[in-house]
Specification:
The chain has about 260 residues and is an all-alpha fold. α5 packs parallel to α9, α6 crosses α7 and α6 runs antiparallel to α9. The chain starts with a helix and ends in a 27-residue tail after the last helix. It has twelve helices and no strands. The radius of gyration is 21 Å and the shape is globular. About 65% of the residues lie in helices and about 0% in strands.
């Protein structure tokens, strides 16, 4: 291996170490307590070396969220490749998102902060570009399901929404429910049901509104549960995500930290 290749490999390994260390510190101390000096110290590198990889804390956070996004692609691909009806494959993508957020709630909390203007607006253009490129495969996967539905005649092609507008609907529902679920105590006073069970119900109402066949009765709670359980089992080989993420784990976001705190 030449000197150039060796240095490139060492840089990749070092960058992965910084991201792993940042993730560990976030889980231990809270997201808003993260400081570049602490990441460098815990990684056993000089802070100048860390800044050679990430020009700011904002860039580090965006890079960490970008890496987490890449981990979502596999589950979405499994949903898209599953040889079932197009409507059930779309439902499976939403279930995939629920599984990810339920099992890794700290990743969603990080995304919530990264997409604020405080972080996203202060990040470098290169960090933002890499983040958007990492998320592109997820959009392409969901778009492919809509194309298949139109091609198969499951979804009308002339009902006034573009392909991307169709995919934004389920995404908006999912993102909204994740946000409400992670706001401690907000939903408990308003809905007795599992919020993600309610999300799937809303999703079926939305898909019915699209005219996405076969139509489904969202009022049939047993049918919703049976379909969700079947998709979890057949597509993802896992149990149904009936429990919600741990919205009471405030250590992940910090209790009294200021969002705009910098080193």
């Amino acid at each position: 291996m030449g000197t150039k290749d060796r240095r490139k490999r060492e840089r990749i390994v070092r960058e992965a170490l910084f991201l792993d260390t940042a993730q560990m510190l976030i889980q231990r101390d809270g997201l808003l307590a993260l400081q570049m000096s602490r990441v460098a110290e815990a990684s056993d590198y000089a802070i100048g070396t860390l800044y050679q990889h990430f020009s700011s804390k904002e860039d580090l956070l965006v890079a960490l969220a970008t890496r987490n996004c890449l981990n979502r692609v596999d589950l979405f691909e499994r949903a898209a490749r599953w040889p079932g009806p197009s409507r059930e494959r779309m439902v499976a993508t939403v279930i995939a998102d629920i599984l990810i957020v339920r099992n890794q709630p700290e990743h969603f909390r990080l995304e919530q902060l990264v997409w604020t203007d405080v972080i996203w607006g202060a990040a470098s253009p290169d960090a933002r570009r890499k983040s958007l490129e990492a998320g592109a495969p997820l959009s392409q996967i969901v778009d492919s399901i809509v194309r298949d539905a139109i091609s198969a005649g499951d979804l009308p092609s002339d009902f006034g929404l573009s392909l991307r507008a169709v995919t934004i609907g389920p995404w908006s529902l999912s993102l909204g429910m994740h946000t409400l679920t992670h706001a401690e105590g907000l939903l408990e006073a308003h809905i007795p049901d599992d919020p993600y069970r309610l999300l799937i119900k809303h999703l079926h109402y939305l898909l019915n509104g699209y005219g996405w066949r076969p139509l489904f009765d969202p009022a049939d709670a047993q049918a919703i549960d049976a379909l969700t359980e079947r998709l979890c089992r057949d597509v993802f080989d896992c149990a149904c995500p009936q429990s919600t993420p741990s919205s009471t784990d405030t250590t992940l976001i910090g209790k009294r930290q200021e969002v705009a705190a910098h080193d």
